[in-house]
Specification:
Blueprint (H helix, E strand, L loop, with lengths): L1 H14 L5 H27 L5 H14 L1
Length: 67
Protein backbone atom coordinates (compact mmCIF):
# COMPACT_ATOMS: atom_id res chain seq x y z
CA UNK A 1 0.00 0.00 0.00
CA UNK A 2 2.87 2.37 0.76
CA UNK A 3 4.24 1.83 -2.73
CA UNK A 4 0.91 2.82 -4.29
CA UNK A 5 0.82 5.98 -2.19
CA UNK A 6 4.38 6.85 -3.18
CA UNK A 7 3.58 6.43 -6.87
CA UNK A 8 0.43 8.53 -6.50
CA UNK A 9 2.39 11.28 -4.73
CA UNK A 10 5.15 11.19 -7.34
CA UNK A 11 2.54 11.40 -10.10
CA UNK A 12 0.89 14.38 -8.38
CA UNK A 13 4.25 16.10 -8.01
CA UNK A 14 5.03 15.38 -11.65
CA UNK A 15 1.81 17.06 -12.76
CA UNK A 16 2.69 20.16 -10.72
CA UNK A 17 6.31 20.30 -11.83
CA UNK A 18 5.92 22.13 -15.13
CA UNK A 19 7.68 25.26 -13.88
CA UNK A 20 10.01 23.71 -11.31
CA UNK A 21 12.84 21.61 -12.70
CA UNK A 22 14.05 20.39 -9.29
CA UNK A 23 10.57 19.16 -8.42
CA UNK A 24 10.37 17.44 -11.80
CA UNK A 25 13.69 15.69 -11.12
CA UNK A 26 12.50 14.60 -7.67
CA UNK A 27 9.27 13.20 -9.13
CA UNK A 28 11.13 11.26 -11.79
CA UNK A 29 13.44 9.79 -9.14
CA UNK A 30 10.43 8.74 -7.05
CA UNK A 31 8.76 7.01 -9.98
CA UNK A 32 12.00 5.26 -10.92
CA UNK A 33 12.52 4.05 -7.34
CA UNK A 34 8.95 2.74 -7.19
CA UNK A 35 9.43 0.89 -10.48
CA UNK A 36 12.65 -0.69 -9.21
CA UNK A 37 10.90 -1.77 -6.02
CA UNK A 38 8.10 -3.43 -8.02
CA UNK A 39 10.66 -5.13 -10.25
CA UNK A 40 12.55 -6.43 -7.22
CA UNK A 41 9.38 -7.86 -5.67
CA UNK A 42 8.55 -9.55 -8.98
CA UNK A 43 12.05 -11.09 -9.18
CA UNK A 44 11.79 -12.40 -5.61
CA UNK A 45 8.37 -13.93 -6.29
CA UNK A 46 9.56 -15.47 -9.53
CA UNK A 47 12.69 -17.14 -8.13
CA UNK A 48 11.97 -17.93 -4.51
CA UNK A 49 10.54 -21.33 -5.44
CA UNK A 50 14.00 -22.52 -6.51
CA UNK A 51 15.27 -25.43 -4.40
CA UNK A 52 18.90 -24.30 -4.69
CA UNK A 53 19.64 -21.22 -2.54
CA UNK A 54 22.82 -20.47 -4.48
CA UNK A 55 20.82 -20.35 -7.71
CA UNK A 56 18.39 -17.93 -6.08
CA UNK A 57 21.20 -15.70 -4.78
CA UNK A 58 22.99 -15.62 -8.14
CA UNK A 59 19.84 -14.76 -10.07
CA UNK A 60 18.82 -12.11 -7.57
CA UNK A 61 22.30 -10.54 -7.63
CA UNK A 62 22.26 -10.43 -11.45
CA UNK A 63 18.81 -8.87 -11.57
CA UNK A 64 19.65 -6.34 -8.86
CA UNK A 65 22.71 -5.30 -10.87
CA UNK A 66 20.54 -4.89 -13.98
CA UNK A 67 18.21 -2.54 -12.12
Amino acid sequence: RLLIEEVALADFELQNANDNSSRLKYSQQGLRASFQCQETIHIIDQHRTSSDPDDYNDIFAQEAQRL
